[in-house]
UniProtKB/TrEMBL annotation:
Belongs to the alanine racemase family. The keyword ATP-binding applies. It comes from the Bacteria. One of its GO terms (biological process) is D-alanine biosynthetic process. It comes from Segatella bryantii (Prevotella bryantii). The modification N6-(pyridoxal phosphate)lysine is found at K494. This is Alanine racemase. It is an enzyme of class 5 (isomerase).
Length: 824
């Protein structure tokens, strides 16, 4: 739907500067995602760490003419002659107001979903259950925040027959705004878990906040077996229709009479408002069962019959939430998105592809299946797809499916190919000749696109390290929450990003605007530069032989001794370089590297003042034991030494020298010592070194079962007959050994891995490339996945057995283990 800029001005109550007539079709809050500048309205949002107003000039250059701002730029009339600035007090509230007014235009059922878990699954399953006969508009992926919800609701259009939106909150006071925007006619609370509990006084308080979504809804849906939820709802005088569900209480509107789990599915018998019904769900886990019950209720409320419901339930598909980045064959990178196929999620995936810098300037290719989206005429749908793909830089289009083939004319990409099926595609010359491309693979499940990925992915070894890029961002934000908004941040991605792979981690961090990346040696920095990383990069262990490289690639060295300083100055002078930024390290107690903060300072300052080849950009020191309270006195002493030494250095110069000492544990433990900048290392990778707990797990090391065999009592397994078998056993071999970084000391039943969620001990000595595990009594087969550590088995279990720290386990994973990156 299109709004004139005049209309928008009135709807959000803005004061308008500029008088150009414009139509607005797209809303933008992140300058990096710009696609259709002419029809875009940019909201300059202010967050703690960023200010959208800073991107106005750039967006104007790229063609955007409409801006919602709280501060109109000076000289707007001369600098931005044909632009409109809509001035409001608070730009986020204006965005929310616009979405709210847009929502008012629709007199259709709107489902609002909140809860601690399952929101996205319930939303996607409802879409699967309803989209056969209704045009559904829903939140893309998990857009459920203060910004995500207005952007989602904005997608409602004239064809929409039902809207389904998620509402997520993390703090008190947030739900009111979301409720006003969504105005649900049916409001659903999936469940109440422990997420974000730290921001609420009690579980009841969190429940009350979530239930604000229920006010004014015609129908509310909740689980009465949860006493907190039930009591909180009862304490409201809610006037609409309450639909409860329960496994125990026959008085519930939806009473689940029986749940029968079979091998691959679950049979559920229920009574809904005195109607009997039954469906078979093709999943067996508890969460899926609860989610399906909620979906059944909403579907029945919308008038779908019990028979139709059970037919559609049987066809429910898992919801893939992730975008995966994989190394492909022949110089290709694969971005695999098996999330439900529709235009909005296509746009998000294209945006993701675009935002990852690619040093080699490789071409962008899209492999897309038919899109099933009832309501839209295929001509229009595929024209929109073509437009999007073109604007987002796709130069090669490969369409799979009869519908795309029939509408090939609508696709206006220079290089385009069409196939009726995946089989046709993979047997074609087009497929065989994919070379040096970044390929986005996006297909509806029934097309079987996994075959495409499987064939294109580089096959080395069946052991992989999965790296969750979202978790990296969550950990980053967790640590940022201890820091003042203005404090800068260095992210330590030395040692190949603590094993996670520095290039992809650096891309993610750069996208989240960290101030500095730090690596150990110059070569690591060069790799980052060659892969398109433009952030500031610090080199912690600069080699004397690599100064020229550092100058060429703008890699800023740490300087810890007079010998290093002299050599660096000499090298810079030889190249005619001036003011090259360096980072001065002071030794306050680690006694590893660094200048003496008392005795070296005068000489250091004198030397720095009498040259202009290098310039101190920052000064820092490193805590010996910020992870343990036992060393608090020592840390205080280190800080005092650093404070004095660094202040002395600063006093000698006119320019600002950034001071920093906090590492991950320091950020959490001594936020008052954050100074100008902090250095985040292990915490970024999800491990809290203060308590050995996992914040958000980033890396999961996985492999598969190669072979299984029965071994009788008395026999042995592996080298030197170490693995004695004491009962008749089933032993599985897995393709991971000490050459992959699986420490030999884990063998001989000292540790275990997980096979289908169950513990399997290592039997006998771990070999170079293979290990044997005891799977006696575990339901498994050859080809099944084995988790060495990760989401279900914390890496700290391994490091504890090995009597070491998680850093060592992570950094020991060898290069031959393929890294796979994904994000939700
Ligand atoms: C590795 C490193 C860090 C990061 O330490 P963590 O404990 O991983 O947070 C910070 N500063 C310096 C100088 C480092 O070498």
């Amino acid at each position: 739907m299109i709004y004139t800029i005049e209309k928008v001005t009135t709807l959000i109550g803005a004061r308008r500067y500029g008088d150009r007539d414009c139509n607005v079709g797209f809303i933008l809050t992140d300058s990096r995602s710009l696609c259709f500048p002419e029809e875009t309205l940019f909201f300059a949002l202010k967050s703690e760490r960023n200010d959208g107003h800073n991107y106005i000039a750039e967006l104007y250059r790229r063609g955007v003419r409409n801006f919602v701002v709280s501060d109109v730029p000076n000289n707007f009339a001369s600098d931005y002659p044909d632009a409109n600035f809509l001035r409001v007090v608070n730009t986020l509230e204006a965005l929310q107001r616009l979405a709210e007014r847009h929502r008012d235009e629709f007199n259709i059922p709107i489902v609002g979903i909140t809860g601690s878990n399952g929101k996205t699954i319930v939303k996607e399953w409802l879409y699967q259950l309803l989209s056969d006969d209704m045009y559904v508009t829903r939140s893309p992926r998990s857009y459920n925040s203060q910004i995500g919800v207005p952007l989602s609701v904005w997608l409602l259009n004239k064809q929409t027959e039902i809207g389904i939106f998620e509402a997520g909150i993390s703090e008190p006071g947030e739900m009111l705004a979301l409720r006003d925007i969504i105005q649900p006619t049916i409001a659903v609370l999936t469940n109440l878990g422990s997420a974000h509990q730290e921001n609420f006084k009690s579980k009841e308080a969190k429940c009350r906040e979530k239930l604000i979504l229920f006010h004014d809804a015609k129908t509310i849906v909740y689980n009465m077996d949860d006493e907190i939820i039930n009591d909180t709802v009862e304490s409201y005088n809610y006037s609409g229709e309450k639909i409860t569900w329960s496994f125990k209480n026959p008085k519930a509107t939806m009473f689940i009479k029986s749940v029968e789990k079979r091998k691959n599915d679950t049979v559920i018998n229920y009574n809904f408002k005195d109607k009997e019904g039954k469906y078979i769900l093709p999943f067996i886990d508890e969460a899926s069962i609860s989610n399906s019950i909620i979906c059944a209720i909403v579907t029945l409320c919308l008038g779908v019959s019990t028979d139709v419901l059970s037919r559609r339930m049987a066809k429910l598909e898992p919801v893939a939430m992730r975008l995966e980045v994989k190394v492909g064959q022949h110089g290709c990178t694969l971005i695999n998105d098996s999330y439900n196929s529709d235009v909005n999620s296509l746009d998000i995936a294209l945006d993701f592809m675009n935002r990852r810098p690619d040093h080699k300037g490789r071409r962008h290719t899209l492999i897309l299946s038919d899109i099933f989206q009832s309501g839209e005429k295929p001509e229009n749908l595929y024209r929109d797809v073509s437009d999007l793909a073109y604007k987002r830089g796709v130069v090669k289009f490969i369409g799979v499916g009869p519908e795309l083939k029939a509408h090939a004319d609508q696709i206006q990409i220079p290089e385009k190919f069409f196939f009726s099926s995946v089989e046709q595609l993979i047997n074609s010359e087009v497929f065989r000749s994919l070379r040096d491309e970044v390929i986005l693979i996006k297909g509806a499940r029934q097309f079987g696109f996994d075959q495409i990925t499987e064939l294109l992915v580089q096959k080395v070894h069946e052991t992989i390290l999965e790296v969750n890029l979202n978790a990296v961002v969550k950990n980053l934000n967790w640590y940022r929450s201890f820091m003042k908004p203005e404090t800068k941040l260095v992210c330590m991605i030395k040692a190949n990003a603590y094993g996670a792979g520095s290039v992809e981690i650096a891309k993610t961090l750069q996208d989240h605007r960290v101030d500095y990346l730090a690596v150990a040696v110059a070569d690591e920095g060069v790799t980052l530069r060659r892969n398109g990383i433009t952030s500031n990069i610090m080199i912690m262990n600069p080699e004397m032989t690599a100064f020229k490289t550092m100058f060429d690639y703008e890699l800023e060295p740490e300087v810890y001794s007079f010998r290093l300083l002299e050599a660096l100055i000499k090298a810079a002078e030889k190249e005619g370089i001036t003011d090259f930024p360096v980072h001065i390290k002071l030794d306050t107690g680690m006694h590893r590297l660094g200048f003496d903060p008392i005795n070296d300072m005068d000489k250091l300052i004198d030397r720095l003042k009498h040259q202009n080849a290098v310039i101190p950009r920052s000064v820092f020191s490193h805590f010996v034991g910020s992870d343990s309270d036992d060393f608090d006195d020592f840390s205080a002493n280190q800080f005092a030494l650093f404070d004095a030494g660094s202040k002395k250095l600063q006093a000698a110069f006119d320019h600002k020298i950034l001071r920093h000492i906090d590492n991950s544990a320091g950020i959490e433990h001594f936020p008052e010592r954050q100074l100008d900048m902090c250095r985040l290392g292990l915490g970024l990778y999800g491990i809290n070194s203060r308590n050995n707990e996992i914040i958000n797990n980033v890396s999961t090391l996985k492999t598969t079962i190669l072979q299984m065999r029965h071994i009788p009592v008395g026999d042995t397994v592996g080298y030197s007959r170490k693995g004695t078998i004491e009962h008749d056993s089933v032993i599985a071999a897995i393709p991971i050994g000490y050459a992959d970084g699986l420490n030999r000391h884990l063998g001989n039943r000292h540790c275990y891995c997980l096979v289908n969620g169950q513990k399997a001990e290592y039997v006998g000595n771990i070999c170079m490339d293979v290990a044997m595990i005891d799977v006696t009594g575990i339901d498994c087969k050859e080809g099944d996945t084995v988790e060495i550590f990760g989401d279900h088995l914390p890496v700290t279990v391994l490091s504890d057995v090995l009597d070491t720290i998680p850093y060592e386990v992570l950094t020991n994973i060898s290069d031959r283990v393929k890294r796979i990156y994904f994000q939700d």
